[in-house]
Amino acid sequence: MSTTEIGGLVSDxxxxxxARNAKEVDEAASLVLNCIRKDALVFTAxxxxxxxAVAETFYRAGGLACVYPVYHPELLPLHxxxxxxxxxxxxxxxxxxxxxRSPGPDDVLVVFSTSGVNPYPVELAAGARAAGAPVxxxxxxASVAAAPRRAGSTxxxxxxxxxxxxxxxxxxxxxxENPRTAALSTVLxxxxxxxxLATVVRRADSEGLAVPLWxxxxxxxxxxxxxxxxxxxxxxxxxxx
Length: 241
Known about the structure:
This protein is α/β, with parallel strands linked by helices. The protein has helices spanning about 5-20, 20-35, 50-55, 80-90, 95-100, 120-130, 140-145, 155-160, 185-205, 220-235; strands spanning about 40-45, 65-70, 110, 135-140, 160-165.
């Protein structure tokens, strides 16, 4: 394997995802902008390795401060690999998690799930929609189509907007003729989320809307700039404490 070969796979996947989702990125940005205008929250969720995308959305230099990470420790493979898979497949967990804090009509829920068929992400999306919140799914239509159904519907079916990563079933990308390593979902999840953020900032700038963005705590003035964001959001986002 050469770095040029795998680099080409990644760059092609990013370019295709950007082209495929141009309209949907703008729609997702509109939902986020609505949250900012109403001083509401962007809830982000995932399970297994999709939690890497949730970490990318939360308390991140250059990221939105109005993010509420939806989390349950049993969903993280670092707390038990087999257990995390079983937990994602457990019917009813989403209702337990949403009982702690559920998005409302002014909020938006973003769910990262490549396969999009397990009960946890599907029921999260359905629960949010029942509460009046729009749902953005960051998923793969190809992977959803190939995955065994484990819930009454799929994340894509429950979503208001679908950002399609295009990840092939199984996630691996290399070697192209028989892919069995180099999973791309984490890269593509982060890329599509950052496309949404870039669109949000461009559009907000054009209308004079201030976007609450974290500064790095490792640059001069970062802690001071973030202090006001902590004051404003910490009462509503316990994970900021």
